[in-house]
Specification:
With 347 residues, the protein is of the alpha/beta class. The chain is built from 13 helices and 11 strands. It has a 7-stranded parallel sheet, with helices on both faces. Strands 7-9 form a two-stranded parallel ribbon. The protein starts with a strand and ends with a helix.
């Protein structure tokens, strides 16, 4: 039996569905309502991972835990990041070990690295988060790392690069909306550094395979085929026959402006987005696919095209309105729409 926390979210629901397709028994828990895309064979429960008594009950007879429940950057949750991301991880890991769960897989984030000081990033690279969300994920990782030597329960940590795939909206919905309407696409800085994405399937299979193969340790997951952010966005725009053009913005003044917009509550972006997306960022991921016995689904451009085609399917957007997960609902532009139009006219 597999337990998936955060089962209403983008990653959690995909893990649930893939497990069912593999013939596995699955329980999904979340504080959000059951999403419309969740396979009917997933046993779904409304449950908060901070609720010790209810959590204990649901862990009975569970063999594998896929821990995805977390507050993500778009929620801008401040101090609650620590409560959910750190304390929540501590609670479910402790109970999983007590219940002698066979394998515990923790979904982390590349945000633990902050602005990379070395590339490519590996399991030995320094983790220096740049903002509060990344700090909460690093602290959660440290709790899981403390259980690496447990005898009854093997543990793994999955660190995904920025995730794309069918049904992915959130911050990318804004990009796709601009491309559909042939509007300018803005990059902070030149966008000339290598920049890696990950596909939702590759993230889901990392969690599933690490559990079923009892593979402990850390897995930094991203595509192995990528170029600079500018190059891959340019190739993507051409592939979908959009007339959008890429406009690069001066890094320092743009970050200062987005920081101000964020503090005023008129920007959808969180610090993790505007502080790091101007920097090259990529993992050494070849070893992940060797250790977990599968292959990445494609390239950055492949992932962007698939996600965009999914966005164009209006059914996905309508369904996203029934789901409160930040990664699967349209994004409110706030002040960005006005700013983007003004900058677009200047260029």
């Amino acid at each position: 039996m597999h337990l998936v926390t955060g089962a209403a979210g983008y990653v959690g629901s995909n893990i649930c569905n893939k497990l069912v397709n593999l013939g596995e028994d699955v329980i999904g828990i979340d504080i959000l309502d059951r999403p419309s895309n969740l396979n009917k064979n997933v046993k779904f429960k409304l449950l908060n991972i901070l609720d010790d008594s209810k959590l204990s009950g649901v862990l009975n007879k569970v063999d594998f835990v896929h821990h995805n429940a977390a507050l993500v950057p778009l929620t801008k949750s401040g101090r609650r990041f620590r409560e959910v991301n750190v304390l929540g991880t501590q609670k479910i890991l402790k109970q999983s070990i007590e219940k002698k769960v066979k394998h515990f897989c923790h979904m982390s984030s590349s945000a633990v690295f902050g602005i990379p000081s070395e590339l490519p990033l590996t399991n030995l690279s320094s983790r220096i988060p740049a903002e509060i969300y990344g700090t909460s994920k690093k602290d959660a990782e440290d709790i899981v790392l403390g259980a690496l030597n447990e005898k009854s329960t093997t543990v793994s940590i999955i660190r995904p690069r920025t995730i794309l795939g069918g049904g992915r909206l959130g911050i990318f919905e804004l990009l796709f909306r601009w491309i559909k309407n042939d509007q300018p696409i803005f990059l902070i800085g030149e966008g000339d550094g290598l920049f890696q994405f990950a596909h939702i399937d590759d993230i889901a299979y990392a969690s599933i395979n690490s559990c079923k193969q009892f593979k402990g340790g850390i897995f930094n997951v991203g595509t192995t085929t990528f170029n600079s952010l500018y190059e891959d966005l340019d190739s993507f725009i051409k592939a979908v026959n959009s007339k959008s053009r890429i406009i690069t913005l001066p890094e320092k003044i743009t970050i200062k402006t987005l920081t101000l917009f964020d503090k005023l509550g008129i920007s959808p972006f969180a610090p993790w987005h505007y502080l790091t997306y101007s920097h090259p960022f990529y993992f050494e991921s070849e070893d992940v696919y060797q250790r977990l016995n599968y292959s990445p689904k494609g390239s950055n451009v492949d992932y962007l095209i698939e996600s965009y085609e999914s966005f164009l399917n209006q059914k996905n957007i309508l369904n996203s309105k029934l789901n409160k997960s930040p990664h699967t609902k349209p994004l409110k532009e706030g002040m960005l729409s006005l700013a983007a139009n003004l900058v677009g006219k200047l260029f």
